[in-house]
Specification:
173 residues; globular; 2% strand; two-stranded parallel sheet; 50% helix; 2 strands; single chain; disordered C terminus; mainly alpha
Length: 173
């Protein structure tokens, strides 16, 4: 059994612009989340994010909150957990589509994966043999040709759905 990796390792697999897009999307409208996710998000941001000039970072201009949240997203697995948990909830309606497509590719999926109770020991590495980004994207789009997600969103949601990071050869692909 391989050693599980902390959630902030996801940063190796996503571009800086996409990380910023994720955080902006998550911080735009808290009403889209369940009360539990909304509460976790607000509490974590208030306790972890420090925006200069604001006691409560949630009252800071969104651009400043995003900037300071992004800094922590790169190093703090707890911040990554709550942000990605909220982000994943935005695409929850596609869960069955992803599970079906990913299972056909040889992944195991779990409805508990996106919540990651331990953000320090969360992700395993190594996709099934012969599976890469284009194959994941193609399989998911084949299951739902009307899917309203970008390729980057599909790959990230697939990682969160399965709990598996791509192998080393997919880094920076």
């Amino acid at each position: 059994m391989s050693e599980l990796k902390p959630l902030h390792v996801i940063n190796v697999f996503i571009e800086a612009w996409f990380r910023q897009e994720i955080i902006e999307k998550v911080l735009t409208d808290f009403s889209l989340y369940t009360s539990e996710v909304r509460k976790d998000l607000a509490e974590t941001l208030k306790s972890e994010v420090k925006v200069s000039g604001f006691r409560n970072p949630l009252t800071a201009p969104k651009r400043m909150l995003v900037r300071d949240s992004e800094k922590l997203f790169e190093t703090n697995p707890t911040v990554v957990k709550v942000i990605l948990n909220a982000w994943a909830q935005l695409y929850e309606k596609h869960g069955a589509t992803f599970d079906k497509a990913l299972t056909k590719l040889g992944f195991t999926t779990s409805p508990l994966s996106p919540t990651y109770t331990d953000p320090v020991n969360a992700l395993d590495q190594g996709w099934p043999e012969g599976v890469d980004y284009p194959k994941v994207i193609e399989a998911v789009r084949k299951e739902d040709d009307q899917l309203d997600m970008t390729d980057d969103q599909i790959v990230l949601y697939s990682i969160l759905r399965t709990g598996f990071l791509p192998g080393e050869d997919e880094e920076n692909a």
